Amino acid sequence: MLYLKRDGGQRQYSAHLSSQVDSDQFGRLVEWIHRNLDTALTVGTMARAAAMSPRNFARRFLQEMGVTPAKFVERARVEKSRQLLAEQNLSAEKVATLCGFQSREQLRRAFRRQLGVLPSDYCKHFNQ
């Protein structure tokens, strides 16, 4: 069970949960991003989905979300890959594809950048 918001000001551990926003403008877009992580999510693509120009979208997204669109997408992809690695017995290549990474190496670098561990070390924790 996942709570939509943690009690008592506790840190949000899920990128998906921590990205919940009150703004209707980006709230729907965030859900759309999470549903489309396996596709190429460029600023142009996301701007079209938000019905904004790319420049205005990038500026407003950073202002509203506190992070660039690219960083947000990377965090969401790492979160999804983390969940897949913990819950399913999938290869790193398959997880990378399902999460929208172009290669296993790109997944590995993003995973380490976001979580400080390699995907293989993360998997070992759950396969003991």
Helix fraction bin = 55-70%
Number of helices: 8
Q: Termini separation (Å)?
A: 23 Å
Q: How many beta strands in the DSSP annotation?
A: 0
Q: How much beta, percentage-wise?
A: under 5%
**Residue-averaged pLDDT:** 84
| Helix and strand sequence | HHHHHHHH
| CATH fold title of the largest domain | Arc Repressor Mutant, subunit A
Provide a descriptive summary of the structure in words:
The chain has 128 residues and is mainly α. It folds into two domains: 24-70, Homeodomain-like (Arc Repressor Mutant, subunit A, Orthogonal Bundle), CATH 1.10.10.60; 74-126, Homeodomain-like (Arc Repressor Mutant, subunit A, Orthogonal Bundle). It is 63% helix and 0% strand. The chain contains eight helices and no strands. It has helices at 15-18, 24-35, 43-49, 54-65, 69-87, 92-98, 104-115, 119-126. Helix 5 runs parallel beside helix 8 (119-126). It is elongated. The model is unreliable at 1-19 (pLDDT under 50).
List the helices and strands and how they pair.
Blueprint: H1 15-18, H2 24-35, H3 43-49, H4 54-65, H5 69-87, H6 92-98, H7 104-115, H8 119-126
Helix pairs in contact: 3-4, 5-7, 5-8
Give me a quick take on this structure.
With 128 residues, the chain is mostly helical.
Describe the structure using short key phrases.
single chain, 128 residues, mainly alpha, Arc Repressor Mutant, subunit A, 0% strand
